Structure formats: structure tokens, C-alpha cells
Amino acid sequence: MKSTIQVSGQVISIFTKQKEEFISLTDIAKHKNPEATGLVISHWLSTKFTIEFMGLWEQMFNPNFNVTEFSNIKNEAGSNGFVLSSKQWIEKTNANGIVSTAGRYGGTFAHKDIAFEFASWISASFKLYLIKEFQRLKEEEHSDLKLEWNVQRTLAKVNYQIHADAIKENLIPKTLSGKQIGFVYANEADLLNMALFGVTAKQWKELNPREVGNVRDSATLEQLVVLSNLESVNALLIHQGLPQHKRLVQLNLVAISQMKSLVNNIQLKKLKDGTALQTKPEKL
């Protein structure tokens, strides 16, 4: 995912790699010399202080960092004619804190820790503005995710009410007792469980005796989204007068289709903090 911020009139590109933000050193370097960004980055990389900082960062976060090559580069740093490019640094040390990409929108990107250090070398004020704009961007993204999550929660409540009303209006005779009415609701809830998870609540509990909660408590985010949608679909099918066994087939098809779509949904992935590979509903 790519985004941009504007710092002192300069557009700075940012992309996310394995949940970490990488900021364009090429764009930052334009603040100093827009005609020779590669040279600016190389001059910074060639200083002994930068090499020590980069080496420390890689040793902290990169288990595949080539420490031997780093030591050789560190010993050469400061000597006459010593020049180090980002490409040489990456190839020699197997560094991953800096990334070089080709193409029209390519350039040299670095992990935010490293990018802030580079910005400090460019200009102390530029670094401060960069940090402030980066923080503002992250706050906006967090606010957007919160809004999306709240909207989803609201939709889930609405769908639940629609589902409950459809059951009440079409499936519950007025002569039933409170216990019998509860059974009808539970039966319809298990219809959705069967369509999505392939088991009833009771069957899931028998299969997972040590698990706390129920089948829905253990559901993935994708499954919860689909479950909310199934409530709305089932309400429509109930109003249409379809018998339960036919509704089960339709709901199962909807569940399979929606799970396939949601597993690779980018917006939904933002809401997750890194979960295991999601399972798809069983085909009945």
C-alpha cells in the first residue's frame, strides 16, 4: 500500500512492507538537491556515523544481516575515495532496512527509523516536519479504520435485528411459550452456523471441549462479516417463505462466495493485527 505526505512543499512517498512503513529517501533528498538525489543518499551512506547506525539497526532487526561484510565496510569508511551506494550496501550486507525499486515511481526507500535519521542529516527542521506529517498520516489511517470498524459493528446490529424480526413475524406462532420461542431462534442461529461453519453450536462444542466460548467466539474477522450478511439474507429468504432446508443450501452458497471474496480483501486486512490463515465455509 502506497501513500504520500507533503513536507515543506515536497511530496514524500511511503509504502508498507510486512506491516512496516518505508519512506522514500529519494524524495527526502530532493529537499537538498533535486537533480542529484542518488548522490545525496550516497554521501550520507558513506559517513562512518551512518554506517554504524545502519549496522546497529540491521543487527537488531535483521537476522540475515552479513556482519562480516558490515565490518569490512565499517573499516573502510572515512578513507579517501570511499563511496557507498544504497545498492552496494544492500547487496554486500543483505540489508533489509533500505529498499531500492526501479521504474517511474521507484527510488530508494528506507524503514522509518532510518528515514528519520537521513532527514536529520538533510535538515533538523525538515526531520521535525517529516515526523509530524508522518504521525498525522498514521492518526488519519487509524481514524479511518476505527470508522470502518464502527460501521461494520452497526451493520451487524442492524442485520441481527432484521433477522430476529423476520423470525418473529414468520416463524413463531403466537401460541408458543417463551421456551419454545427461544428454541426457534436457536434453531435459526444454528442454520447460519451450518451454512458458514458446517456444524451446529452443539457439534462445535463437542469437537472443541477445551475451547472457551462458542463457535462464533472463535470465528475469524472474515467469518464474522459473512455471518452478519447471512442474517440479512436469511431474513429475506424467510419473508419469501422458503423452507429451512432450501434456505440452508442458498445460505451456504452465499457464505462460500463471500468468504472467497473477503479472504483477499485489502480493507478487511487492515482491521486485523495479523491472524492465521483463514478457513473457508464447508460446502454442504
UniProtKB/TrEMBL annotation:
Residue ranges crossing the lipid bilayer per the database entry: none
Lineage start: Bacteria, Pseudomonadati, Bacteroidota, Cytophagia, Cytophagales
PROSITE patterns: KILA_N
InterPro entries per the UniProt record, alphabetical: KilA/APSES_HTH, KilA_N
Domain of life: Bacteria
KilA-N domain boundaries: 1-137
Record organism: Dyadobacter fanqingshengii
Signal peptide annotation: none
Protein name: KilA-N domain-containing protein
